[in-house]
Amino acid sequence: MDPNASVHIYSTVVHSKGLLFGIYEDYGNYTCGGYPGVLGHLEQDANTFAEWGVDYVKLDGCYTELEDMATGYPEFGMYLNRTGRPMVYSCSWPAYQEGEMDVSSLCQWQLKKTVYFS
Hints:
glycosidase, hydrolase, 4 strands, alpha-galactosidase activity
């Protein structure tokens, strides 16, 4: 079965139940779990996510060079915006770098590396 068709079908089923469809990805060569990341395929992956009907994109930062994050995360956000499909863009970039950064291209961002439960 074609994986692209499978994901789109799954997304359609999720949407038919009144839910939103989200996906996890990583800016580096690999995700934190070792699966392929978006590096080198930013525009292609943004377009694919739009074709699949993705509503929420979580972009992590494992296996990413810190100096690449300042340009890479906004660049991927630009490609997501160019698709014309509204998607929430959630980034882990600020959790990896301290100081001021341009977060104007982001919808949400992670401030801490660890979540503590009370």
